[in-house]
Amino acid sequence: MDRISCLPNYILCEILSYLPTKQAGSTSVLSRRWRHVWKDLQVIDIHERHFRDEDPFDSYVNAILTQRNADYSIEKFRLACETNSTDLILTWLDAVIGPHLRELYLILHVNVRFGLKLPEAIFTCPLLKSLVLKSEISLNYGPEFPNVYLPSLKNLKLKLFIPYVHPNKILSGCPVLENLTLILDNTPDSRNVYVPTIQMPRTLKSLTFEDDTIVLDEIYHRVIDTPSLEYLDMKITIAKNSELQVSFSSFPNMVEAHLNIIDHGRVEHGAWVSDLFRALRETKLLALRYYTTRCLFSAPAFKFPEFHRLVNLEVDVPCFNTNFMLNFLHNCHVLEVLVVGIWTGFDSYTMEYNGPTPPTMVPNCVTSHLKSVEFRAYQDTADEREFIVYLLQKGLVLKTVTISIEPDFGQETKYEFVRELYAIPRVSTTCQLNIWP
């Protein structure tokens, strides 16, 4: 007998738990020693993609759940499948949900109008630490949503269709939640549902939040009072005549923030945008998508806060503007990496920057910290060329400047542009200029 087969069952099960259950179960053919090991598994991971069309998926899942050793409770259950039988899925979940369940991951595609209504027992599992619900999973329980109390839950990922459940009903029952991915959307047949206030748990350290429910001419309030937050990825789509207020605490522990504020008319006038930037002033990485930057271009009263710890800045701009970039850099005192993307989408257009003229002195980060600069979708406008020359001549510690040129540049134009850029004197003797077609 080989050495691995001599190991006790609990160690073999620990090894097999890192495999999809279909592969773990196939070890039963290795020898008599392995015939029943898989039955003690407490981690069940079943994905329909591991099965060929001719494989009886439903029968296989039934066999796994009925033949396993009931003395060992399931601690982790992952299921990804597409089925016409919601009753069958509910039968599987009833066999899995119990007081010892610690992780539940469901990605389901079901051919029913409002998805699959989950067993209420999921929302009171005492040891559940991670809950992930994706795809057509309905939480429509009528006017009375079941009581939610998940005292151990630290990781929650879910997509909610409004109005089937108000997210506060779930979030309020998670007293120690640390990592939240919350995607809110209206159902296709109910686009005008008013969801006034959403309160994020104060215990959060990581928040990924997408909100596509703000569609009415009403007052909306999103409260992100999460002082321990370290990671934020926020995407909010705002209709033209809607009202939105977002409240923030200060984020002294923030490490990484991604902002995608998609406005359709009014968000640039909201004071909360300035409040958000002030709340993020301690972050080390800040990524601004195109629509967010467009808001800043349009807001004449906007003033960048002082970013004392910002090391990495990624910004997509509607069109390049030297004054905008210099105003930003003057407030990023220790910036080391700058990535600029020029928007080339279907709705791209030249846009005026309404902010103030920047100070005449060189930003401190340019002379003492900035090491890497990258331009994406470079279009060789006068402002872009001026800014690159500025960095090459002022960046004392620059190591790399990378420029990705728009593909519609003609070969002759590209050659002339490259020749001129390489001829620009660089104050940093170690600066490497990279130009990609």
If you had to describe this structure to a student in words, what would you say it looks like?
- The protein has helices spanning 9-16, 21-26, 57-67, 86-96, 167-171, 271-279, 290-298, 322-329, 364-368, 382-394, 411-422, and strands at 43-47, 76-83, 103-110, 116-117, 130-135, 137-138, 155-162, 179-186, 197-199, 206-214, 219-224, 231-238, 243-248, 256-263, 285-288, 312-317, 337-342, 372-378, 400-405, 432-436.
- With 437 residues, the protein is an alpha/beta fold.
- Among the domains are: 154-283; 291-437, Alpha-Beta Horseshoe (Leucine-rich repeat, LRR (right-handed beta-alpha superhelix)), CATH 3.80.10.
- It has a 15-stranded parallel β-sheet. A 3-stranded parallel β-sheet has the order 9-11-13. A two-stranded parallel ribbon has the order 4-6.
- Helix 11 links the parallel strand 19 (400-405) and strand 20.
- The model has no long low-confidence stretch (mean pLDDT 85).
Percentage of residues assigned to helices? 10-25%
Tell me the name of the CATH class of the domain at 291-437: Alpha Beta
Give the N-to-C terminal Cα separation. Answer: 59 Å
The geometry reads as globular
If you average the pLDDT, what whole number results?
85
Précis, in short:
22% of the residues lie in helices and 28% in strands. With 437 residues, the protein is an alpha/beta fold. Among the domains are: 154-283; 291-437, Leucine-rich repeat, LRR (right-handed beta-alpha superhelix), CATH 3.80.10.
